[in-house]
From TrEMBL:
<dbReference type="InterPro" id="IPR036291">
    <property type="entry name" value="NAD(P)-bd_dom_sf"/>
</dbReference>
<dbReference type="Pfam" id="PF13561">
    <property type="entry name" value="adh_short_C2"/>
</dbReference>
<dbReference type="GO" id="GO:0030497">
    <property type="term" value="P:fatty acid elongation"/>
</dbReference>
<protein>
    <submittedName>
        <fullName>SDR family oxidoreductase</fullName>
    </submittedName>
</protein>
<comment type="similarity">
    <text>Belongs to the short-chain dehydrogenases/reductases (SDR) family.</text>
</comment>
<dbReference type="InterPro" id="IPR002347">
    <property type="entry name" value="SDR_fam"/>
</dbReference>
<dbReference type="InterPro" id="IPR020904">
    <property type="entry name" value="Sc_DH/Rdtase_CS"/>
</dbReference>
<dbReference type="GO" id="GO:0016616">
    <property type="term" value="F:oxidoreductase activity, acting on the CH-OH group of donors, NAD or NADP as acceptor"/>
</dbReference>
């Protein structure tokens, strides 16, 4: 008997149909871009943030009703993360995806020899948040049957500028955390990391902080892709990693920097 010839399988037009995804730091910036991508892909999304005004603006501007939930959450506080997760499960009844995106936006700390322990801990906020939120989400993700975690790192995990030790350590830690958790939780839960480069978020903030992006030609030209990144770029990659399209992908890092990290640079 001859083997069956594989058929051409149709691609889903809404790859997150029926999925519920929690995006931390989802009220603005890259987090908002990911949340909007989840909605565009047919999923339901809970956005968690400390900024209540940004959360409210998202719901008012999206107008998609029951497919969204806003949760006030401090991801560096275990009780806050657990309470927020309980809200998500009470509202949607399930959780299929978690995007650990929340953390400080400013990578700079005081010089290490004068930095306080509090400064250091603030630099590590995204790593702490990934721990608390993953810990709270894992039971529901395991029960989902298609659970996926996406951790948002940064190209600062690979290259640095002065006085960014805490932020770099957090983002590098997220990469290691991702592959370790993928091994621990597979095959029930897949875990991957996205490493964004320069992503312009000025017009993706809450209404009070929103502004028009300002770039020079050289800003775009230094990227082999020809432009600075936008939140939609990270959102599209997150949808792939959260959906069944990436069912054979786990424990990996995906760099989305417009090719900038591959370009050789010399001083004039």
């Amino acid at each position: 008997m001859s083997p069956e010839v594989p058929a051409i399988a149709p691609w889903p037009t809404r790859p997150l149909e029926g999925h519920v995804v929690l995006v931390t730091g989802g009220g603005a910036g890259v987090g908002r871009g990911i949340a909007q991508a989840v909605l565009g892909a047919g999923g339901a999304v809970a956005i968690a943030d400390r900024d209540r005004q940004a959360l409210a603006a998202c719901l008012a501007e999206w107008q998609v009703g029951e497919r969204t939930l806003a949760v006030t959450m401090d991801v560096t506080d275990g009780d806050s993360a657990a309470a927020g997760m309980a809200q998500v499960l009470a509202h949607f009844g399930r959780l299929d995806g978690l995007v650990n995106n929340a953390g400080i936006a400013d990578p700079h700390l005081p010089p290490l020899d004068v930095a306080s322990w509090e400064d250091w801990q603030r630099g590590l906020s995204s790593l702490h948040g990934a721990f608390w939120c993953s810990r709270a989400a894992l039971p529901a993700l395991r029960a989902s049957g298609r659970g996926a975690v996406v951790n948002i790192a940064s190209t600062r995990a690979h290259q640095s500028e002065p006085h960014s030790e805490g932020y770099a350590a957090a983002k590098g830690g997220l990469l290691a955390f991702s592959h370790a958790l993928a091994v621990s939780e597979g095959p029930a839960v897949r875990v991957n990391a996205i490493t964004p480069g320069w992503i312009e978020t000025a017009n993706w903030q809450g209404p009070a902080s929103r502004s028009q992006p300002q770039h020079h030609a050289i800003d775009h030209a230094q990227h082999p892709a020809g432009r600075v990144g936008v939140p939609q770029d990270i959102g599209a990659l997150a949808v792939f990693l959260l959906s069944g399209l990436s069912g054979f992908v786990t424990g990996q890092e995906f760099i989305a920097d417009g090719g900038m990290g591959r370009r050789m640079r010399y001083a004039d």
